[in-house]
């Protein structure tokens, strides 16, 4: 086990890792009390080099590691990589490693579960158990014990062993394209941008009147800006229920905030309260102009109920045939939209999902296919 705490050692290690066929990567971070995740440890294994990189070491410059992640000649292997990539994107200059392989996504494609945990995947493919004794470690504390370091390093040494097995399984079932398509979202910079103007999209829209929407959007943008600027979790600024109350009451002065149950006592006398009221007043001057545009779904046809039930049954049939979880192919909201609209903008009508399910589901709706019971099993058959 090799600890990296200075830039020269990091540069040497990354040079060696860059010569490996692939590099398994993981991170440990803390974000319970901050908005931005605090990177505490980086684990990497490639070839016969295994390293623990300490981002908290005084004077350590992570640029050699960022350069390794940018090197497109090196395949980077992760498990459930979104949070890792979020850190790389915000700390590495909008860095997204390419090319990249996510073992959790690959496991989904070969039928091992739509969000299988790392320890379950290790058990399924390597027949080993993962020691969970250090899973609740405070990774920001130093020094780490040998047990904690070994636990962290196992995340990449076992991943290094998993990768060839998963890659072969993907090839055996011919689903490399599934992985490529699923990785598009993971590697899309838009996934990691946190523009406060888009913060309202994280919330459920309980009403659609322009005034309510404009107030909610303004309040959500204010909270996101405060959280990012002060590096505080969103709910420590104000909880979601508070945003809904603000949108309903549409206060125009700090004093009016004191009447809301979800707003902390005394908040109305703070500078953040002044900024919130300023944002609300600007939005409420012209609610229609400030309210987000909400696309209306096509109304369900009169016979949508039976169509939906037929689609649910067909989805079960396809999922069993493909050996994957039904919800991976389509969700109930997907099916509800598909019941009403053959051209609905849903994942089930795109890419591999359309190939294995969506296109045939439309044919079923049109009466070109039928569901029949044969030998005790439901199957889809062509109609003359």
Please characterize this protein's 3D structure.
This protein has helices at residues 7-17, 63-70, 82-91, 103-109, 118-126, 146-173, 176-186, 210-230, 234-237, 240-249, 254-257, 271-284, 287-290, 304-322, 326-329, 332-340, 351-365; strands at 2-4, 22-30, 38-46, 49-53, 75-78, 100-102, 369-374, 377-382. It has 3 domains: 2-191, Ribonuclease H-like superfamily/Ribonuclease H (Nucleotidyltransferase, domain 5); 196-290, HRDC domain (DNA polymerase, domain 1, Orthogonal Bundle); 304-382, HRDC domain (DNA polymerase, domain 1, Orthogonal Bundle), CATH 1.10.150. With 384 residues, it is of the alpha/beta class. 30% of the residues are buried. Strand 7 and strand 8 form a beta hairpin. It is flat. Helix 4 (103-109) packs parallel to helix 6 (146-173) and helix 8 runs antiparallel to helix 12.
Find the CATH superfamily of the largest domain.
Ribonuclease H-like superfamily/Ribonuclease H
Radius of gyration: 25 Å
Strand order of the largest sheet: 1-4-3-2-5-6
What is the class of the largest domain in the CATH system? Alpha Beta
* Ends distance: 66 Å
Biggest beta-sheet profile: 6 strands, mixed
Domain module count: 3
Stretches with pLDDT under 50, minimum 5 residues: none
Order of helices and strands: EHEEEHEHEHHHHHHHHHHHHHHEE
**Count of separate DSSP helical elements:** 17
